[in-house]
Every structure is written in C-alpha cells, then in structure tokens.
Amino acid sequence: MARLADYFVLVAFGPHPRGSGEGQGQILQRFPEKDWEDNPFPQGIELFCQPSGWQLCPERNPPTFFVAVLTDINSERHYCACLTFWEPAEPIQEVVCTEDATEREEEADEGGLVQLSPATPATPGQLFAPKTLVLVSRLDHAEVFRNSLGLIYTIHVEGLNVGLENVIGNLLTCIIPLAGGSQRTISLGAGDRQVIQTPLADSLPISRCSVALLFRQLGITNVLSLFCAALTEHKVLFLSRSYQRLSDACRGLLALLFPLRYSFTYVPILPAQLLEVLSTPTPFIIGVNAAFQAETQELLDVIVADLDGGTVTVPECVHIPPLPEPLQSQTHSVLSMVLDPDLELADLAFPPPTANASSLKMQDKELRAVFLRLFAQLLQGYRWCLHMVRIHPEPVIRFHKAAFLGQRGLMEDDFLMKVLEGMAFAGFVSERGVPYRSTDLFDELVAHEVARMRADENHPQRVLRHVKELAEQLYKNENPYPAVAMHKVQRPGEASHLRRVPRPFPRLDDGMVQWIVDQATAKMQGAPPAVKAERRTTVPSGPPMTAILERSSGLHGNSARRLEVVRNCISYVFEGKMLEAKKLLPAVLRALKGRAARRCLTQELNLHVQQNRAVLDHQQFDFVVRMMNCCLQDCTSLDEHGIAAALLPLVTAFCRKLSPGVTQFAYSCVQEHVVWSTPQFWEAMFYGDVQTHIRALYLEPAEDRDHLQVGDASTQEDERSALDVASEQRRLWPTLSREKQQELVQKEESTVFSQAIHYANRMSYLLLPLDSSKSRLLRERAGLGDLESASNSLVTNSMAGSVAESYDTESGFEDAETCDVAGAVVRFINRFVDKVCTESGVTSDHLKGLHVMVPDIVQMHIETLEAVHRESKRLPPIQKPKLLRPRLLPGEECVLDGLRVYLLPDGREEGAGGSGGGPALLPAEGAVFLTTYRVIFTGMPTDPLVGEQVVVRSFPVAALTKEKRISVQTPVDQLLQDGLQLRSCTFQLLKMAFDEEVGSDSAELFRKQLHKLRYPPDIRGTFAFTLGSTHAPGRPPRTTKDKGPSLRTLSRNLVKNAKKTIGRQYVTRKKYNPPSWEHRGQPPPEDQEDEISVSEELEPSTLTPSSALKPSDRMTMSSLVERACCRDYQRLGLGTLSSSLSRAKSEPFRISPVNRMYAICRSYPGLLIVPQSVQDNALQRVSRCYRQNRFPVVCWRSGRSKAVLLRSGGLHGKGVVGLFKAQNTPSPGQSQADSGSLEQEKYLQAVVSSMPRYADSSGRNTLSGFSSAHVGGHVPSPRARVTTLSNPMAASASRRTAPRGKWGSVRASGRSGGLGVDVGSRLAGRDMLGPPQANGAPPDPGFLRPQRAALYIIGDKAQLKGVRPDPLQQWELVPIEVFEARQVKASFKKLLKACVPGCPAAEPGPASFLRSLEDSEWLIQIHKLLQVSVLVVELLDSGSSVLVSLEDGWDITTQVVSLVQLLSDPFYRTLDGFRLLVEKEWLSFGHRFSHRGAHTLAGQSSGFTPVFLQFLDCVHQVHLQFPMEFEFSPFYLKFLGYHHASRRFRTFLLDSDYERIELGLLYEEKGERRGQQACRSVWEYVERLSRRTPVFYNYMYAPEDAEVLRPYSNVSNLKVWDFYTEETLAEGPPYDWELAQGPPEPPEDERPDGAAPQSRRRVVWPCYDSRPRAQPDAISRLLEELQRLEAELGRPPERWKDTWDRVKAAQRLEGRPDGRGTPSSLLVSSVPHHRRSLGVYLQEGPVGSTLSLSLDSDQSSGSTASSSRQAARRSTSTLYSQFQTAESENRSYEGTLYKKGAFMKPWKARWFVLDKTKHQLRYYDHRVDTECKGVIDLAEVEAVAPGTPTMGAPKTVDEKAFFDVKTTRRVYNFCAQDVLSAQQWVDQIQSCLSDA
Prior knowledge:
Distance between the termini: 98 Å
Strand content: 5-15%
Radius of gyration: 51 Å
Number of strands: 46
Strand order of the largest sheet: 25-24-23-22-28-27-26
Largest sheet: 7 strands, antiparallel
C-alpha cells in the first residue's frame, strides 16, 4: 500500500531578487509541513511548476494541467501534477517589502481587492500572475491527480461550501494498493467519487495512449530511430509547445523500452532555467518547450524529435545502429499493419467492409506488443548465458556477452553489441537474472512463445493475431475492471476563468490539515500491515538459443563428412598411424575454418584425456599442437564460440616428456593468440567455472542420498541447470538456520577463492613465453596494450626482454628484463583477481592472500619453463623434406644454394585446384635457387593428397620485372613470415614465404644477388656472355689472346675509325680499296689505319662473294648479318650485285655502303638500299631531317606491283612539314635547314621517280580524309562481303567479284579484277563513304576514287598537325594516332597483373580476368597495329609505295614494317624467312633490345617495354586466322618471346649492329667451335633443335602462291595468347628444351607374375603437365613411333623432315581410289581444333587439287561468303574423294537434273547428289559414275529462286520445273523432270542452307 499523494504545495509568483523583469516561484504553503521519513520533500518544485519561467500575463489564460517528473538521488521518480491558474497581480506589489513573504502576499491580494470595484472590468494596464497547485506523488495516476486538483480549483472558483482543508487532508491521507489489479473507490469529501484501478503487474509500464500518440506524431521510421537511439545510449530531446505532449512522448518511449529500464537522465519537462543540462556528456531523454528551440540548435550530438512538426533530426556525427535484419524489416511491416490496417486491403478489387478500428488505448497496447515481441526475439535464450557466481547471501549473476552474440550469430552487429554493453542491460541482468522471483508477461513470452514467433515469421495474419493477444494482456494489466462506474467529480463552469473571482486562493489552515494527516497516520499504525504475498517462482529458461538468422556458413558448411575427417585424423594420431594422419591433416586444417569442426576437435581431444593428463610422443604432440593452433587462429579476442574456452583445459592436459623430470605442456606452443591476452575472456571463463563448481556444491548431498537408486533420480539431478539449483536454494534460504546460512556462504566463498588461485596458475601458463623469440611475437599481439593501464611496458619493454638469456644465466629474477616480463604478467593477473574477487564477494583477507600468492606462482612457473626451454632446444628438428636439386643448363652455375621457402598460390586458379578442379599443387614446400641464368623453385605440394609430384617454377633472371617484400602466413604453421614476390615478363610469378630457418640476412643476400644478376653493370656480365666461362657473373671476362687474326680485330678497327669519322661533316674523297674477302683475316697495315674513308665508288668485288671463296670463309660470311640483308635484297631484286664495274642503270635502287662506318646513322645497318639517282654525299644531309638520323631507306619491294616499302624515323621540326607549309615561297638566302628540306624533297622525289609508272595512272588518290578513327575506333556495322571493284561507278552490279588476297578465312581466287582496281585505298576513304567493317576488315571499296598517290607517308598525327598537302606533290601524308613506348610499358604491366594476379581474386571467375584484361588495353594496341599494317598492305598491293615514319623509327615503325612484310610476302612466313625478317628489320635496323629489356644497370630505371613481344603477339593473331600459311608453329613464336627476354643467347642483346661490332659479336667465327659447345645464337639453336624434333614445324603448312593475308583486326577477333596464361608446373617453362625433356617413360613390360602388361595411361593435369608432350598430335606421335621402330630394327633413324617430305610426296599419288589409306589417315589426324570455319589444306601435288578438311565453325558469320572458296582457284571437286568410294558416300538427296552449262553451253542431264554433311551439291555424268564432275559449294549460295526456260531448254517440261541457284559468282540454271521433283529439290537445298 502507498499514499496516493505525498505533498500538496501551493506555489505563487514572486518578484525576482535581482529586480529583473522575470519573476520567480515562491512556495506559499506546503502540506504536510514536515517531510515524511520515507520520502523527503523534493527540491526545486518552483522551477518545474512553470517550466517556461514565471511571468506576468496581460490577460486571463484558462487553467493548465501537466505532470512533471523529478528523479531523486536514489533514482526514485516523483510525479508532480501541476494545475496552474491566473489571478490579477497587484501593481504596488514590488514596492512593499515586509519581512514575511507570505504576509506580503496576503496584503497584496487584499490590496488588489480594494483596487478593483466589482462592476468595472479589468483595466487595460491590469496584469495577471500565475498560481500553481502541485501534488507530489510516487505513483503515476495522472487522471486521479487531474480530477483531484480540478476539484480543489472548482471549490475555489465556484465558491462551493466545502472546506478546502478537509479535501486536501483527505487527499494526503488516501492510501491505495500499488499493484495486484485491485480497485479502490475514493472520495475527497466534496460529494465526489473516483475509482482507482491498480495494474495487475507492478513491473509492466503503464502507457495509457502515449505510445499510440507518439507514433501518430512522428511515424514508424522516426519512432524506430528514437527507440534504437535510446537503447544505444544516445541523447534524445523532444520539442513541443505542449507540456502534456512532452510528458506523454517521454512516457511512451520508456514504455517501448520495456523490459529494459532507462537508467540515465530522464526529464520529460525541463525548465528554461536548467537548459544547460542539455550539454551534459551523459545520455538523456529530455523534453523542452518548443519556444526554446533556438537554444537547442548548437547541440552537436543530440537527436531532436519535434513532436509538433513530426520530424526527427539526427546530427551528422551521430550514427544510430539499426536493428539487426531481418528484425528491422519485420518490425517495420508489423507496425504498419497495426497502425494502418487498411493498407493490406488497399489494392483489393472488392474490399471487405472496414472493420472497426481499434480504440486509441487498444492501438497503444498493440504497438507495445510489437516491441515486446521484438525484445523476446532479440533476447531469446538470454538465460542460457547467465553465470551464477554466488547464490548466498545474495545472488551474484554475470552475463556471458560473447557467448550470447556468438550463438545468435550477431557478433558483427553494432546494435546488439551496444545494447549488451549498456547500463540498461546491466540493470536487466541484475533484476531479471535472479532465478527465483515473480514473473511477468515478458518472462513467459521469452520462455514459451519463441517457437511460435519463429513459425509465424512469414505469416502476417498470424503475427497480427499474436500481437492482438499480447495487446489484450497489456490492456487487461492497465484496466483489470473494464466496466467500472464513471468518476463523479465536479468541474468549474464554462469560461469560469474569465469571471471575476471573489477573492484569491485562500491561505489554508495549516493546523487543520496537519491534524487530519496525523489522525490517519495513527490509525494506520494501529492496523496490521497489509502485506500482499509476492508469488515468487523459478523463472523458466526457455529453449536454448538459435541464431537470429540461419546464415548458411557458405564455404565451410560443416557437413558430416568434414567432421568425420576431423575424427578420423585424431584417432589416427592417437593410434600412432602417422602417415594416415599426415595425409588427412591439410583437409582437417581446411575443415577447422568451420565452427562445428572446431567444436568437434575439442570434444574428440577431450576423450583422450584421462585424469587431466595425456602424455604423447613427439609426433603426436606436434599434430595436436598444430590442430589447436589452427583452431585458435580464427578465434576473436572474445572467443564468442567458446572454442578457446574448451581448449583451455586441454592445453594444460596434453604434454610430452622431454627428458626425465621435464615435461612440456601444449600451452607453451599455443600462446601466439590474441584471445589469451583479453581480460574479458578470462573473466567469462572464470565465472563459467565458478558456476560449475557452485552447482556441484549443492548437487553433492543429493548425489549421496540417491546413489542407491542408480537411474532416473541421479540423471535428473545432473540435468538441473545452475539456475534451477540456485532457484531452489533461494527458496530454501529463509527456512535455513543462521548457522547453516553462514556455512553455505563460507563454502561458496572458498569455492570462488580456490578458482581464483587456479586461474592465476592458468594465466601464468598462457602468458609467460617459453623463450625470448616468442616474447617478440607476444609483443606484437593486439590487445596486450590494454593490460597495462599506467604504461604500456608489457607491450613495449617487458616482453621484448630476452627471457632465454636470463634462463641461461640461471639468475632467477636478477635480470631486469625478465623481471619485467614477470612483473607485467603479475600485474595482469592481479588486476584480474581484484576484479573477479570483489565482484564475487571474496573477503578482503583472502584477497590479500591472493595478491601475495600471485608473484610466487609466476616465479615457480618461470623456473619450470627454464628447464623445458633448455630441453626443447635439444630436440631433433622435425624432418623437413629433402631439397630437390634443379636441373641446370650446360654452363649454368648456382650462385645461391637452396633457401627453404613455401611457394604460395598466385591467383592462377588452376595451380590451387580452382576452376580446373585439379588438385591443389600450391602452396608447395621446397627451396628457391639462384643461378647465373634463372631463379628456380623446386618443391612438393604441401597437400599430401596431391601425391609425390614435383613442382617446378622458374624464369630467367633477366626477365624479372618487379620484386617486392611481402609478409605472409606460411601454409603449414600459419606463422607470419617474411616473403618475396618476384614477377617476370615471361608471365611467371614466384610468391614465396621464407621458412623460419632462413634468416633475414640470407633473404637479403638473395635479393642483393638477384639484383646484381638482373642488372649487371655491363652487357658482358649477362649470362649469354658468361655462359661457359668460369669467372663470376657481373665481371667483364678476362681477355684471352686470339688464336689467330680474326674478323674481331678488323671489326674493332672498323669501329675505332668509325668513331673518328662520325664527327666529320664532309667525307674525304680519298680512294680506299678494302682488302678482298680472302685477306680480311689479317689486320690492315698500320699506316693505313687512320685513313680509311668512304669512297663513293665501291668495288662490287667487295660485296659479291666470288665463287673462289674458301669454305671456311664462306662459313664466316654466312654468319654476317649484313650478308643476310644483302641476300634478302637480292631475292627481292633490289640493288642486284653484278660482277661488272658499271652499275646496272636500269635498276631503280642500289645498295649504298655510305653507312659502312656507321657514320651517318649508328642504328642503321652498314649497307642500305637507296634510289639509284641519289648520291651518297646527299644522304648525310637528308639524314639530318630525321630523328636519330634515320632517313628513309627501302626495306621491301612487292614482287607483283613493284611498289616499295620504306622506313625511317619521325621527322624533326623542319622537314616534310616545313616543306609542305612553305612550299611555294622559298625565302631569299635559304638557311641550312631549308637546304636540308630541299635535299629531303629531292630524296622523296627520287624515291617516287624510282617507282614503275602506270601508263593509265593520270591522277592519284588522296588519303587526306583518312582519319584516325579508322585506326582507333570500332565502328559497328554488319559484316559485309569484301569485294573488289572493276568499275567503281558500277558498285552495285559487281558485288560478286572476288577479293584479292585473304580476309580471315576467305580464300582468294586467281588475280581477277580488271584495270584500275584500286584496292590499296580501301582504308583511306572518308567516314561517310563507308566505315571499316565491324570485324576490323577494311570497308567496302565502292567509295574509292580512281586516283592515287605514288607514295604515302604514314606519320604520327601529332607530328603532322596543320599540314596542307599540295596537290602537285607526288606523295601524300597519312597522319595516324599511335601509342608510345611508355603506353606499351604501362599496358604490359596491367596485362601481367591480369594474367598472373599475385593473389587470388576477390570474385574468382572468368569475368574478373576479362575485366582486368580489358583494362590493360593490350588487345586494343594489337588491334591498332594490325589495322595500320593491313592499310599499308592494301596500299602496297594496289601499287602505291609507302614510307612508314613513326616515332624514332625503331619501335612501332619496326612492328608495322615487319608485319606488312609478313602479310605481303609468303617467304617471311617460312622458318628461314622469318629469321631473315627479324635479323633485317629488328636487329640490323637497330631495335633497342637492351634498352627496352632493361638489360643493364643503366637501363634499370626505364623498365621493361615489350615492343618485340607485341609484334610476336600480332604474328600469333595472324597465325590463328591463317594456320596454313606459316611454316613455323605457334610454339616457335612463344620460344622467341621467351628468349628475347631471357639473355640466354646473344642474338637479342645490344641496341644495334654498331654496338654488336664494337663488342665483337657480329663477326664470330663458327670454325672455332668444337663439339657440343652451347649455342650463342638463337637461330643456331633453332636449327639444331629442328634437326632433332619437329617442335617448330607446322604440319598444316600448305601455302598458296603469292598470297597476301588480310587478317581481321577487331578486338572481338583477337584471342589472348596462351603464352601469357599457360603454365607447366611439372618442369617449369618448356622453352629451354634440354631442361624440359623429362625422363623417358618405361616400356610396357610383362609383369613377372604373368599378368597383363600395366597400362601406360596416366592422368594429365592442366597447369601441371605439358599437354602437348603428354598427348602429342598424331603426326608427331607417328614420327616418334617410326623412329622407335627404326631403332628397334637397328637401322640408323631417318630425320623426321625427310620422312615427312616423303609422306607428302606419296600423298600426291593417292588421289586414286586404289590408293592405300595409311598416310592420308595420318594427315587427317593431324588437324587440330581450330576456331573458325576455315578449311585445312594440305598440298597434294603439282596438279593443284587440294585436300580440304572442313571444320565446324563456332563463329556465325553474317554472310556465307566469308567462308566461300572461289571456283577460279584450284578445283576442290575431289573433296573427300580420296577417303571414300562413291557407294559409301554421304548422299542426303540425289536424282537427275538438267543443268544449263556456262555461257554459250547447252543444257545437259546430270546425276546430282546433295551432301548435307559436306555442305555441297555435286554432279556426276551418270548414277554409277565415281568421278565427280563438279561441285557447288552451298556456302556460296545466296538464293534459290524459280527460273524461266532459256534457249535450248528441254521442251516437254513444265515451266514451273525450272529453278535457279544463285551463288556469289554466278547463277546456275536447273530444270527437274517435273514440278514435284523441282519443288523437292528446292526444299532440300533450302533446308540444307538453313541447317548451316
């Protein structure tokens, strides 16, 4: 029972003491005068009566009522009900100053009466003062307070004949029950009646309508935000103009928080004088009048809810964590259903009649029910995480937060984390954690309704039903008796406040009120205390926890299979089956990523512990420790899944004997985990263990009593939880005797104390490191910083101390540093002990004893560790796998022997067993070796399931592009180790973690040596030079005396003189005859040395090797690169070398020796092709106009059109540009530069005039419109057929003419096309006339103008800006946009990253690779190169010459010029031709290989720029599109790509011939070599290898004569070169042939037991085995077989090339039906899978019929013409005929048709066969004829249409039996025997076309 009201107070307006305009409240009277003992009078009531301040008012306001809430020092809330009314104020009031304030008030009032006569209304100057009646109560009965104060006011205003003292006395003495659902009628003695209902349960908040109003004012989202903000301890401020609204809003928010109680500042109505409270740092819920909104603006961290405006403002710096999903969305939707029930029906076509909406009070309860359900879902199972630390004398309960979050799966959830750490939840645990207490609605809900809520989740109606049920209960709690009699309380009349009141509120008789109060108190004392017995019960725990959202644990879904693996592995370990265990271990370590597997491990290990001890042998110990470490590495510091907690007893149980008396426990090996240094973990563990022991304490007697009845009783006892036991004990506690109570308290206290000692030991085990190196790791641990509050000594100094040293000196604690480690641990343990013991109520004596004990425990443990550490050092190290020595090349030497490393996965999926599904070859354990040539890793996969496979990854040192230090986890021990990542331009990546035995100095030495080898100071330090020599790398070789005078001496002298000559402007004209080739062996005479100068007339004998050359000299000559160029010039008919002295004047070009001394241009070869008419001395001047002096020289001439291809560097500022700009206005007195330009103009004129003139070429075509869009842009358009026009005006008519050359797979016919065909300018047209086709082919040439220039100069757009070509010139500029070398470099870097990422992709799959490939823009550069090259090919083919003049003339120029020659001239597509092309264009013309490959220290900064590799990629793209045009295989290109960067050969070293001569490379004698000395030239190596194996040869090689290739260049047609992506881990890169050949396979021998021979089948793994070698193509296989058989027969084996040539020759004779089938089947099997619809041609013989094997196309072509083959070409009529006879042929449909012959030929009846398989229509003379007379390829058919009879057609046949078949070349006229068969034929042909 409690008083309804504690105090009644009358507060009035009084002047401010400082005389300001504001007044202040004054308490006139309060009753009772004395404070109640149990409830003192609250201070500061005057402020809260008028929160906006006490002010006078010019008019009478109506009375107001609100309830303010004050909180006292004991957090008790006092409800102040305030009724305020206004009375006239006395003007002279401020003058009167009597001592007694109350007297003054009375006089003023009376004075006021005198002033105002009854008749007169209030004068204009009249002011009114507020007066407030206040009731102070601890109960919240706002309505009763309103009625009671209203009654007092009514009695006063209406002048009722009732004594106010009596009413107030009755009010103060009214006693009502607190709770229990009783009903009490009260009367205050004024003829009134009020009914008070008390709530059923005291603990449930009373909300009336406040929650519903709050939602109406703010809306769902805003209220949810405020709810989360209040729970997560943010500051919440309500604004409103109404005080009652503020009270209601605050009350509503608090009601929503139930069952948590808000424990921070709570002021629903804050007075204006106290506004500074808002800047308090603690959280609050406060209401403030909206009038003070301006003052709240500068609060930066307060969430402001404006109730009148319906907004909630959250500052930027405040983050309110939302509810965890799916609860947030579920709550939102249920709230919307409650607030707006019509929402569900809004879309119905026939809405049902609307149900009655809930009343506001009911809606209020429904909204609360939603939040009650939310809390039940959030906190479900919370009782399972309570730890009962003490039961007597008072329960001490702790909550295991980490376990709760972990089991709910909400570890990452910000909201729940903050709630659990908040004060409200701490209160919740202490209040509701008690096991024996009265329960309420929430307890039942969380215990019994969780399953129902989970089941209802997806059924909104069922959820709503549940909400309504709960709402009923909440409503019933507030209104237990719904049908009560109405209140009967008098109210004042309408507008009574405006009436003149006869007198102010009177002064009441204190004595009378006090007397009534005293009477009632005396009566109460006499009456017995009405104690309502609380119904206390055991609180139900409810079902165990489940995750809030069943998240599938993704990758680690712990299937039963995984747990099985863990169990098996452990049983193998303990059974001693170590090999089996080792096989399973990697799978176990993978499985342990999952929670279930970790739990399973702890359970299984538990089974092997007997009496708290399990002694293992060394191997078992290692296994167990590794598994424990793996378990712990994924534990967070809080250990939310209890894994560390489960392992804690195990790490002190498993041990091994190191020596007699010395035992090492597992804890010394599992210390490197953050969890051990987290105080919260130890506390939770401690409390958990204490609970177990205390439970056991009370279960023991029960066990003794029931031990006879083994069975039910005891098992029931066991199942009782600690909470149940505690509940039972709390129930019995009052019944126990005082001694018994004392005894129980003592027992519990000593239990806690003994656990504290136990934990001090455990903590010292896990915190004291075994040795000093471990302390280093400890120091890096996160979380240890928290251990030291004052200083971080544990993190910084203490653990850094070398513990081991002090152990060795055996000085105990003398060593300061050790002391520090020990001290830090002691402090950590002491702080822990302090905290848990004070919380658990351990006596202070015990606590002191503990503090004394801890240092001794630590000291003892340190001494034990000393011996353990000493003995553990003596253990034999674990057997590491034997290092595998790599195989080395002859001459390759080891620089650094193997360093043990782990090779880690690098992002290529296959190696890690990714998409290919293969085994995980990486990570592998082995060693890295550094040799003079390569970096090599050899090792074995760490995953034993892979088996005994050797993994090799290596790359040449020279190919290293990036090296960076990394720090990685080793795959086996999961320790952080230093590592290195090496990336090479041959697309290998070594990502290595050094083994712990490799010191950092060894790793550093490795880096330094690698750097030294990668960037030698001089080119002589590279492997190609040091190969075979004995000196160390990096030093120049010792000079050796030449055996005899050789070319080298000559070359040195040549260079010496060249250097002198270069400086001279004009060359001396002294005649010099160099010695003839025979005498070049000796050095020239001394006196002649300085006078070598270039003579203009060079004797031909010096160039032409006479037939009388000695054989040795011939060999010398053939190694001369210039000779190679000369050979090519002769082949092309450029500058023929004749024996006569007179130069053949008919030749337009000549070979000029002007650069023989490399005086004009160092980067050009010595002999150059220039126009016949240009003199040598003019060349010097011309060269000055070009960059690097690289003036235009001829490098190739078309055999057919006689157009020439020239190359040069880009122009200097003056030059063609200047020459074109200032064309016709030569300035007087030309400058030097102008004369140079003139020379240049003459030179170009000479080039033009050297070209053959066409008789009909009167004009020329201009390329001025050629825009860079054609080179850079991709213009989408349907693929059109490429056609050649005979007459540009009749474009449409001639669409069927065949193109010259090849587009993709299109085979060209003979050179058709009439006069004036202008294919050359195909790419040159303007955009509007026809864009290039979508696939990158040039556009249709219908738009080309018939004129063309004789010479096109292709230059860089940027360089040729603003040039207006003059129409009179013979040449024309084509500006194009090209990329620079630095762009190639950047693009290559990105390509490397895309192909070899370095770390596994975040989202594995082809998409990420393709995305990064596209970002690299590598394929776009390839596309541009091919496009420009095809343009040049077109121009050359049409008869115009082209000068390529880009950048410095040695990068992109070289790429384009080489590609053009390759596409135009079939010779360069042979092995010899390609070699010649590379030697001529790349080596002789000075591509800077050393500079671009960064071969020496000087080039280190410039980095690797793969210009040559890009060219090879272009060749590879062409090879893919024309696989039959190249004699060499794709492997040849990869081989060159690898070795141009490897520096194994000298071929690709240095930047020009000049440098090679200077170093003596160019004139190396072959004669000096003997035997198997290493090749120095890559070509020589290729030759040698080609003799032995066909690896460089392309079996599909079947070239067409004089074929020009025109590849598609669009990016969609380009493929990623497999050189970038493929890898062979079995042997490393396959390009060093000697190393790549594995051991020979053993032959199939009979097994000794006579069983069948063992199969030689073996598994071929992608990424591990070399597939071409494991499964060679059929031809290679057969050739190998032949060699093997010949060897068996004892014959000398024949060379493969001879065999192959012989088979091809035999093939020619095999066209006849009686031929044998073997060789042809051999040819069939050689066809590889090729992706395009192109035929595979093998030449048959001179007659020219070809064998074609069609392959399926996987690329739909827009027009069938793209796969057509022209009839004018060699006949393909015998397609397939050599394989089958006519009978067995595939005949889909056949019959007789009349066919009209070609022009002027008659109709003839033939036997036609439609073959759907081969996609053709064949015809024979008659049915049994085996020889096909002709073939119509259906690929060429465009349409089948009805025909008309023409002259000579069969007369008897119906007109409708004629039909025409229209192909790309002609129209065939057919006639069937009747209409029906004609129709059938047409249908059959059509269906065949549609199938295709």
